[in-house]
Design a protein that fits this description.
This is Glyoxalase/bleomycin resistance/extradiol dioxygenase family protein. Keywords: Dioxygenase, Oxidoreductase. InterPro entries: Glyas_Bleomycin-R_OHBP_Dase, Glyas_Fos-R_dOase_dom, VOC_core. The protein is of the alpha/beta class and 119 residues long. It has one domain: 2,3-Dihydroxybiphenyl 1,2-Dioxygenase, domain 1, CATH 3.10.180.10. The strands form two sheets. Strands 1-4-3-2 form a four-stranded mixed beta sheet, with helices on one face. The chain has a four-stranded mixed beta sheet with strand order 5-8-7-6, covered by helices on one side. The protein is globular and about 45 Å long.
């Protein structure tokens, strides 16, 4: 069995990214390992998700990585993100994966949001 256990995004906009992802319901803690850079981390059901600063000499973050998150209430989440000025790329709609929308995080990564199915 294999399980994804770590995702790290790197950015020059750490505080904006924390605000964006916190709006999805994620709670971060500030961390620093030894002499490494200060960063933010959280645990999501066995997955560590971290927001690191860009490495020195790097000016642009990777915007080709696409992430997806399940949220409790898609419309409420989109409204809170809109208040932050977040761009919606794909309006909410019913899909084969559920009620979903796509937004851009502060660096421009496309983030898919899917409403949690009621069981």
């Amino acid at each position: 069995m294999i399980q994804l256990n770590l995702v790290v995004i790197k950015t020059s906009r750490q505080e904006e990214q924390v605000r964006f992802y916190s709006t999805l319901g994620i709670t971060f803690d500030a961390h620093r390992h030894g002499n490494g850079p200060y960063h933010y981390a959280c645990s999501l059901d066995g997955l560590t998700f971290e927001i690191y600063p860009l490495p020195k000499g790097t000016t642009e973050p990777d915007t080709t990585t696409r992430l997806g998150f399940t949220v409790e209430n898609l419309n409420d989440t989109l409204q809170r993100l809109e208040e932050l000025g977040v761009e919606t790329v794909q309006a909410p709609a019913s899909t084969e994966w559920g009620y979903a929308a796509v937004v851009k995080d502060p660096d421009g990564r496309r983030i898919e949001l899917v409403e949690r199915l009621i069981k």
